[in-house]
Amino acid sequence: MINPVFLRTFCTLVEVGHFTKAAEVLCITQSGVSQHIKKLEEQLGVELIDRTSKGFILTASGQRAYDQAKTVVSLLSEFSNSVKLDEKYVGEVRFMSPGTIGLHMYPELLTVQKRHPELAINYRFGPNQSIAQAVENNLVDIGLMTDKPNFSGYSKVIKSERLLLVTPSSIQSPTFEDLMQLGFINHPDGHHHANLLLSKNFAHFTHIDQMKETGYTNQIALTLDPIAMGLGFTVLPECAIPHYVNHEEVTTSTLAHPVSETIYVLSNSKRRLPKRIQFMLDVVEQAFLE
Questions:
Q1: Distance in angstroms (rounded) separating the CA atoms of residues 46 and 61
Q2: Among the four 6, 126, 141, 252, which has the fewest Cβ within 10 Å?
């Protein structure tokens, strides 16, 4: 009999495309992922993947196995959920969002968990383009994103968030020339944010690529540090700014043409949502109404 744990590991590996990422999702070691794949290959009597210098590719047998295994894994997950006691304040809830949203949302969720300690909050940060797919593939329960999702499940607009131009405190009313001179501090959604805001406010702006990039960090909480040191400018949603401790070292400018981005919440409505997931959806929506 095929071990369903090995099947889940195999499907997760195919869907995230990397051994390290699969290990993170499954909360096991990378060697554990490799062992599961090897044992599944032994049980099936075929090779499922060919390792490459950049990771792996599926064999023909591997592709056929995945096409069938993902249905089996989904059914097993549904079966497990359906027979478990469905309680509103018990169990794990998996979230995924860009870092800018997470700065606002994660502390709110921990407050809820403190009130209901049998809830377990699993929060991952990721770029917009990977969030809808993660929800669709049942890797997370609730997704929050700022791009309009191409998604067949449940999605809802919960807020519009202003985008702000952030410069060192020495520059109070930045001109286009000031920005060109400073250079851009990028972050995972940096190009998207900058193109939205700057194209509406600076006649000479065509694309953020025309400006030099003087830094990058995928940790949104650290994005304003180089700005405070005078190393560049950036564009961030308004919700990311209050969390920065050195407010006096940066300036947020009110531009002539304000621009907002829309925040969407997603969940997989193709399956019956457990009560804890529905409860957390309500928590998320309420958090952005305040």
A1: 7
A2: 252
